[in-house]
Amino acid sequence: MTVIAAPLGQRSTQIEVEADVDLGVTSRLLDLLVIHNRFPQRMNLAREGTTMTVTLSLAEGTSAEARLLAKMRAIPGVRRADELNAA
């Protein structure tokens, strides 16, 4: 299910987050993006059993991706957060 979509064609960073199925996790992920002033061009959510996978497509920005990923990994319920190949 695509939750947010923006014009494509811009270079982007893909981040995939695997977490427990919990609306609180999604809310905390979005709060973190707002704090860092990073708004997704595209956001996909998929659920399989007790696992939720969130794929974010963020416009290329500063080199703060590592810090953002570290903060995502620290969110309770997040099992992993990894940067995928740029699109």
What does this entry look like structurally?
- The protein is of the alpha+beta class.
- Helices cover 25% and strands 44% of the residues.
- It is built from 2 helices and 5 strands.
- It has helices at 23-35, 65-73, and strands at 2-5, 12-20, 40-48, 51-59, 78-84.
- The radius of gyration is 12 Å and the shape is globular.
- Mean pLDDT is 84; it is low at 1-6.
| Termini separation | 19 Å
The share of residues in extended strands comes to 35-45%
Unreliable sequence segments: 1-6
Q: How many individual helices?
A: 2
H/E element order: EEHEEHE
Number of strands: 5
Rg of Cα set: 12 Å
Fraction of residues in helix? 25-40%
Compute the average pLDDT.
84
What coarse outline follows from CA principal-axis ratios? globular
The strand line-up of the biggest sheet is 1-3-4-2-5
Quaternary state, please?
single chain
Structural class: alpha+beta
- Report the biggest beta sheet as strand number plus sense, adding barrel if it closes: 5 strands, antiparallel
